């Protein structure tokens, strides 16, 4: 349990500062577990892989992109931005998965607004009872009431930020684009070392959407929710992360009975991307790679039955 961790629940929490007025709140990739030895969303979906949320600050306003994995983490983000003089906060969810919304109650106050894509809100409403029973439970699911569908421009202080819906990883994916700095906050649409495939029946759409993303945001820097803390601190990934994600999905969905990538370790599948420095190999993603193979096989079995 978190309480049992040496140094307390924030023992390995880091605040990174990749650009002026842009912060990443990073935890995980430590080799230890945070919550429990049993399989659970917090450890296996987030802490083991490393997780970052972000704040973008302009004057006394801040945009927070994802609510972090616990209310303790979210409260630490809140203290940090308050310490910088922020009095008005907008919280944006990248998608409906537990590791992106769990900390939200700690961010709720009289001067905060929660925003998400329309489907994110309906998914949270559908799953809130399950989330309350999950391990660890999320007893208080904050469902945003400010919703958008395809695209929304927001003013945060003097800055304009853009929200864009992409059907990658989940169909409610929201990426955040900061045009003045050509910065793309990708949520779970892009991960290093490999995308965590969910909604595998939509993989052909995910590929088209990744190509649309590459066309729409050329020559940008990318900050993902699950990536290397060193790379995030140094300013993020290049757009080659999008190309690496496309290549990975392509080899995993090769239209033959058993794609070669299913027999290979992830380390081998992404060898060339790692050599080029587009990806950084992180061993914990071997498990994600095996899960990815399983969900693709399952989606193929289901498609064959229809
Ligand atoms: Zn995630």
Automatic annotation (TrEMBL):
Cited InterPro entries: Metallo-B-lactamas, NDM-1-like, RibonucZ/Hydroxyglut_hydro
Species of origin: Pseudomassariella vexata
Domain named Metallo-beta-lactamase: residues: 50-226
Pfam families, per the entry: Lactamase_B
Full protein name: Beta-lactamase-like protein
Entry-linked Gene3D superfamilies: Ribonuclease Z/Hydroxyacylglutathione hydrolase-like
Record SUPFAM superfamilies: Metallo-hydrolase/oxidoreductase (SSF56281)
């Amino acid at each position: 349990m978190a309480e049992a961790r040496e140094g307390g629940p924030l023992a390995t929490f880091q605040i990174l500062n990749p650009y002026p007025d842009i912060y990443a709140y990073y935890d995980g990739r430590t080799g230890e577990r945070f919550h429990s030895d049993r399989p659970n969303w917090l450890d296996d979906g987030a802490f083991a892989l490393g997780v970052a949320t972000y704040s973008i600050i302009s004057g006394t306003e801040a945009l927070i992109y994802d609510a972090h994995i616990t209310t303790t983490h979210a409260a630490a983000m809140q203290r940090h931005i308050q310490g910088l003089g922020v009095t008005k906060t907008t919280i944006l969810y990248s998608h409906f998965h537990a590791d992106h919304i769990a900390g939200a109650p700690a961010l709720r106050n009289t001067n905060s607004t929660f925003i998400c894509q329309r489907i994110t809100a309906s998914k949270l409403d559908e799953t809130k009872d399950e989330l309350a029973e999950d391990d660890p439970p999320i007893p208080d699911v904050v469902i945003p009431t400010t919703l958008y569908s395809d695209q929304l421009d927001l003013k945060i202080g003097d800055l304009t930020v853009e929200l864009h819906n992409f059907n990658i990883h989940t169909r409610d994916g929201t990426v955040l684009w900061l045009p003045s700095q050509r910065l793309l906050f990708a949520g779970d649409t892009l991960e290093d070392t490999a995308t965590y495939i969910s909604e595998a029946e939509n993989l052909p759409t995910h590929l088209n959407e990744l190509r649309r993303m590459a066309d729409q945001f050329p020559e940008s820097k990318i900050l993902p929710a699950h990536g290397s803390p060193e790379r995030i601190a140094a300013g993020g990934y290049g757009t080659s992360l999008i190309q690496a994600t496309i290549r990975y999905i392509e080899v995993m969905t090769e239209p033959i009975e058993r794609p070669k990538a299913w027999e290979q370790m992830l380390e081998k599948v992404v060898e060339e991307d790692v050599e080029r420095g587009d990806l950084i190999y992180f061993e914990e993603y071997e498990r994600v790679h095996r899960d990815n193979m399983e969900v693709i096989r399952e989606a193929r079995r289901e498609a064959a039955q229809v």
